[in-house]
Write a structure and sequence with these properties.
490 residues
């Protein structure tokens, strides 16, 4: 039965319809981003299996320092949603603008200097020398274009918070189409083109020949991603600055740097930034050292399995983002009891989807791994990639339901402004279980090789889920008054 929305002017809707109205475009947007990375990895796989591992390592190394700002900027969603619930959505634009200023500052101070350290980082990690060189060049291009990505995320969180995720969805779909074509053109140039690419390969080669573009290989994938992200930023930015949007939300007037709004973002965003960066750092250590340490085939199999893991959890990440927006709105309205029910409904939907993924990972594991292996791969390498990747997918299947609950509950807590305790708990758990547990598995059970760290990673997700559910059940988040302490209150 529909619940009363008190003073809220919107038409009453059932819980499921309301949740899906916000979550569907958000989930589709997150899936769109995953499809972009999936497409890139598929295109690069036609250069050879070793390129998949290099792209994965380079992409993760580039993403770790970005994730600090990315995690902090997610609270723009929280502030926008709570102001929407409080009937003051015009106060949200200042958070988007100041999120963009934070992104630009982070890029200048951290990301550009860090890009020059990548070659040394991969050498220190004892990655295969050729894979290390490819990974470093790929990651450096992504880092130099990272300011576009972070500004895109700041603006996206503004639209999520105002329950207008369809704007971000349109931008994401457009970027995916651009990425598919441009990446194919830049990766393969005028040829040779793998037969598996079919008409796409022929079209890409025709464009490259007519424009005189060379074959760039793995770096072409990075350039394609940066160009596609520019499109992903341009579309919501045009809507954000449009006359109609400006008239309703005063988006053009809030462009100046505001220390009060930056302080708001930092105050509840720093745990998210720390948490996100720490988790990426731990997963980076996991993939680049614990898994890749066993050789190039382990690295490539690991990144293929990781790509399927992303395909399963990114829709749940989308549900988490939507849950942040919905919980934030009801917290702004002073209705935490409705927020709690919406959160558990979101958990159920995410768990159903990821449960199906878990079954598919087990049943179709060999076919899924083989999809990313080029046809000219030596038979002995093919067999080893399928063997390793299949076991990794089984380990991934084991934690799918727990991952669904952990991500959605994390988003719900963030929507209420409860970020510090969960962030600190996540940091400690990740280092103890992923890093410590992964090293333990290698040293105590060396016969498991790279599968040992995957077992440790599965254990981490299960333990983290239990911690976050415990925090949510305690209910302290229901009493938080975020807007009373924010710049929006003045």
């Amino acid at each position: 039965m529909p619940e009363p929305l008190s003073h809220h002017p919107e038409k009453q809707r059932s819980a499921l319809i309301e949740l899906l109205a916000v979550a569907a475009p958000t989930v589709a947007t997150m899936t769109s981003y995953t499809v972009m990375t999936f497409t890139d990895k598929w295109l690069v796989s036609h250069l050879g299996a070793d390129y998949v591992g290099a792209q994965g390592n380079g992409g993760l190394a580039a993403w770790v320092p970005q994730s600090v700002a990315y995690g902090a900027l997610q609270v723009i969603n929280t502030y926008a949603a709570q102001n929407l619930g409080a009937g003051k959505p015009d106060r949200a634009a200042a958070y988007a603008w100041n999120g963009a200023w934070i992104a630009i500052a982070w890029w200048i101070i951290v990301l550009v200097p860090y890009s020059f350290l990548l070659p040394g980082i991969f050498r220190a990690a004892e990655v295969d020398p050729q894979q290390a060189a490819w990974a470093a060049s790929y990651g450096q291009i992504l880092l130099l274009g990272a300011v576009v990505n972070l500004c895109t995320r700041a603006l996206a969180n503004f639209f999520y918070g105002l329950h207008r995720a369809s704007v971000v969805l349109i931008a994401g779909i457009s970027a995916n189409i651009i990425n598919l074509i441009i990446s194919a053109v830049l990766i393969f140039g005028p040829g040779p083109i793998a037969p598996e690419l079919g008409l796409l390969g022929e079209f890409a080669a025709w464009i490259a020949r007519n424009l005189g573009l060379p074959r760039l290989g793995i770096t072409g994938s990075a350039y394609g991603t940066v160009i596609a992200t520019l499109v992903e930023l341009a579309i919501p930015l045009a809507i954000f600055l449009s006359p109609a949007f400006n008239q309703r939300f005063r988006t053009r007037a809030a462009w100046r740097i505001s220390l009060a709004h930056i302080k708001d973002i930092a105050r509840i965003g720093w745990p998210g930034g720390l948490n996100f960066a720490n988790e990426m750092l731990c997963w980076g250590f996991f993939m680049v050292y614990l898994v890749s340490h066993f050789g190039r085939l382990h690295a490539s199999a690991g990144w293929i399995a990781h790509q399927y893991m992303s395909l399963s959890f990114m829709p749940a990440v989308g549900m988490s983002v939507a849950c942040t927006a919905i919980v934030g709105k009801y917290m702004g309205m002073g209705r935490p009891e409705i927020a709690e029910r919406r959160a558990w409904l979101a958990v159920a939907i995410s768990a159903a989807y990821m449960g199906i993924c878990a079954i598919a990972f087990v049943i179709f594991r060999e076919r899924l791994i083989g999809f990313f292996v080029a046809g000219d791969t030596p038979p002995e390498d093919l067999a080893e990639l399928v063997r390793l990747g299949s076991m990794m997918l089984i380990a991934t299947a084991a934690f799918q339901l727990f991952d669904a609950a952990a991500m959605v509950i994390s988003g719900a807590l963030r929507g209420a402004g409860d970020t510090v305790w969960p962030g600190i708990a996540t940091v400690f758990t990740s280092w103890i279980v992923i890093v410590g547990g992964g090293i333990f598995m290698i040293r105590v059970f060396p016969g498991l090789e790279s599968i040992g760290p995957w077992i440790a990673a599965a254990s981490y997700i299960i333990i983290l889920c239990c911690i976050l559910v415990f925090r949510f059940q305690k209910g302290r988040w229901k009493t938080m008054k975020l807007l009373e302490r924010s710049a929006s209150a003045h």
